[in-house]
Each structure stands twice: as structure tokens, then as C-alpha cells.
Amino acid sequence: xxxxxxxxxxxxxxxxxxxxxxxxxxxxxxxxxxxxxxxxxxxxxxxxxxxxxxxxxxxxxxxxxxxxxxxxxxxxxxxxxxxxxxxxxxxxxxxxxxxxxxxxxxxxxxxxxxxxxxxxxxxxxxxxxxxxxxxxxxxxxxx
Length: 143
Prior knowledge:
It contains 4 helices and 5 strands, in the order βαββαβααβ. By secondary structure, it is α+β, with helices and mostly antiparallel strands. The N and C termini lie far apart (42 Å).
């Protein structure tokens, strides 16, 4: 099967000051983030100085083979994702990402916390932990 995710971006624009749910997947769904140093590096990159002026991180979870990120974009979304992926790649020491990403615009303010709860609960639904407090690779601004 050929990857055609880039065609999903055609004609799409990201709007400044809008909220987005981003999903980024590792190449061939390899579980890079089972390695604690890789997962920790992926978590740190949400707060790297080069991203801080471009995006406000509201919530994220780093799963073994993908990342969910709820953010408020202050810049072009493709640029934000490209910087994040590049920073993680540099920290891990090799290319780990599948091309592209999935984005969903959050249109209603009241949906933001619901989506953040969904993101944070991913490790529970995946059976990685039975208590979210036992999973170290997530954050939400409402804590």
C-alpha cells in the first residue's frame, strides 16, 4: 500500500489561534517510545524554545508508536509539526516518523477539555496501565 497522506493536506489551511488535535505515527508503527529515553525526549520537545512561540501545548500523550497533541496554533500547523518531529528525531538519533500527520480542528471551546481527557486516557484504553497516574508520558495544562 502506498502512503498518500500528503494528499490529505491539499487545499487545507491552518488558522492562527485555533485549537487542533494532532496525531503523529512512527514509521511502520515501530514502538520507539517503549524506550523511556525516547519517550522522555518526545515529551520534552513539546516545550522546546523553538516551539513555544508557535504553539501552546494544552495536552499530549506519547504512546509506544504514536503521539496525540492538543494545541493552540500560533503559526502554520505543518511548520509546527515539522519542528516537533525534527526535534524528536534529533533527540532519538534517527528518523522514526511516518510521513504526514492527522489533524482535527476543534471548533467548539467546550470540546477542548473532553478531547484532553480522551488523549490522557489513551494508555488506559490501550491496556498499558490500569491507573493513569502510573503512565509517565502525558501532560495537561489543567493539572
